[in-house]
Amino acid sequence: MDAPLALYRRYRPETFAEVIGQDHVTTPLRHALAANKVNHAYLFSGPRGCGKTTSARILARALNCEQAPISDPCGECQSCRDLARGGPGSVDVIEIDAASHGGVDDARDLRERAFFSPVSSRYKVYIIDEAHMVSPQGFNALLKLVEEPPPHLKFIFATTEPDKVIGTIRSRTHHYPFRLVPPKVLGDYLLQLCQSEGVVLEPTALPLVVRAGAGSVRDTLSVLDQLLGGAGPEGVTYSLAVQLLGYTPDSLLDEAIDAFAAHDGSTVFGVVDKIIESGQDPRRFAEDLLQRLRDLIVVTAVPDALRTGLLEVPGDRAERLLSQAKGFGPSQLTRAADIVNTALVEFRGATAPRLLLELMCARILVPGADDTTQGFAARLDRIEKRLAVAGGEPTPAPAQPVDTRPVQPAAPEPTPTPQPPAPEPAPAPQVSAPEPTPAPRAPAAEPAPAPQPSAGPGVPPASPASGGAPDERREAAVAAPPQSVQPPAPAPPAAQAPGQLGTADVRRLWPEVLEVVKGLRRFSWIMLSQNAQVAQLEGSTLTIALVNTGARDSFLGSGSVEVVQQALQQVVGVSWKIEAIVDPSADPSGASAPALVQQAPEPSSSQPARPKGVKAPESVRQAMAAPAGERVPDDPDAGAHPDDPILDQGDDPEQLLSRELGAKVIGEHRE
Predict the structure, then answer these.
(1) Element spanning 142, H or E
(2) pTM for the full predicted model
(3) With contact defined as beta carbons under 8 Å apart, do 251 and 217 qualify?
(4) 269-274-275 Cα angle (round to 5)
(5) Which structural domains are found in the chain, ordered by start?
(6) Sign of the CA dihedral running 9, 10, 14, 16
(7) What does the alpha-carbon distance between residue 507 and residue 396 come to, in Å, rounded to a whole number?
(8) Contacts of residue 139, Cβ cutoff 8 Å, sequence gap at least 6
(9) What is the mean pLDDT of the chain?
(10) Mean per-residue pLDDT for 316-336?
(11) Comparing C-alpha atoms, which of 244, 242, 203, 196 is closest to residue 222?
């Protein structure tokens, strides 16, 4: 049995209605045919494989149809059957390849035979393909015939380079420029052909076929014909299309883009090594990388490009594009795209393509070494992103506190001058007890009866009525937090350099970091969202507080540290060292980070020791977090969190731990 014809021959259109993507040409031609206003000469121009010669044949069939004037050939008369797909052809429709018949002698021969009347049709039609190959002498020999042809003669010139057709010929024709077929239209047409052929085409492989065809219908059908010939029972798959067409897999492109966003040179050059070792073309990898950067630029400039159809990508790839675009600024993407585009020009005739590819990646990774305008813009993108994360433009130090009460900062000087009333010597040993308070507080609104020298930060001045046993003063310090009379000058947010992040900034961005962690590793997200909170940021070290030792060990031993570092790199663009501490007062469900209590009262003999990992009652935490001078409500359940467990007197502690924390008591230690 003979092999079937190629797809582009089997599915060649026979009417103008079957021609796709050229409505701007087919609609005027159909109107001219229906109204019998056909010109004597036409010039069809456009890229290869877009339907020029096919439209010329359809026009010749419609002109010689027995039912003419008609917009589309009937397909039933003898002339239509002769010129149909797979037909024998007609002696009155002559196709000439100007690439081999473009000389002056060929033009003279055509001119001599053109005056003879058609044999069996209404018109004698000359279709001159590749008309730009006709020599100037040949065009000049045809000039008089094209300008004043006999009534039975029609000319149709088809060319990919209309500028090479001499102006005297172009001026005597009706010029119709053909265009490349849009990807969406071409993709729908390919799906119809696959249904007609009974072959399954994966949605992820369809964009590769359309991209390989580059808008040319004939080239696209040739690519699809190759894939259909090599497809197995499962049809045309993505892996088959990638292997046969030579494209870079999406996994390698994703790895390279993520590494560029994180400025990870090791991963980038590892991808280059994979490209070379697998035998792929470095230039093709650069082309695919440029295409991915283009998609990211569009997504960054038009956030709803995926929803509106501006980018035609599968669903899973759309999510990856959105997440990858967040790691770059607009100037960074355009700079990287320009570098790749310049490298593509250098790849032509290169003797060391791997070296050029590595140099291209090195230029993308080091924007600081680029002293051009694009390099400065890329660095400016990074600074603006850092400033935006840090809370906008840096504000001066006096604008940081929002307390409107009158404050006199003269008293809390670092080295206060002794006042006439002698200070009491008893509270002096308690100076360093609550030294690192979480945030500076303003003094109480009502002034003291007499100015007392400050015994130390965080220790209230002792009055003659309250001076007594140290146990009473320690209990008073636990019942209400010490009045922080530290001067507002050393407040970290005020002294923060422009663009430098602080603990408050990281706490504000922590929910966004958790969302990225959720996409990277769900186990780490569950553990962090339920058991962890940001404690503080010192330099490049971020301290995370976890509620118990088990949660900390699980965090350190499960690889979650690397996940958090990767999430911080995507959200903030920094590489920090992560440290984990145990702080039972860490409350991830609260609005703020846990306060670090440096000294707590020792448990008395009448009060049982609280097991590790169990949160302190809400009333105690409110008392410890209450500002100085504010009375704590008498009701212990007032202000309780709705998620706090309701305890009954008869509840067994082991059952409570098992129900609320999923823990098992293996021993109990009391001091």
Answers:
(1) helix 136-147
(2) 0.54
(3) no
(4) 95
(5) 7-177 (3.40.50.300), 183-245 (1.10.8.60), 250-388 (1.20.272.10), 503-582 (3.30.300.180)
(6) negative
(7) 21
(8) 107, 165, 166, 168, 169
(9) 75
(10) 84
(11) 244
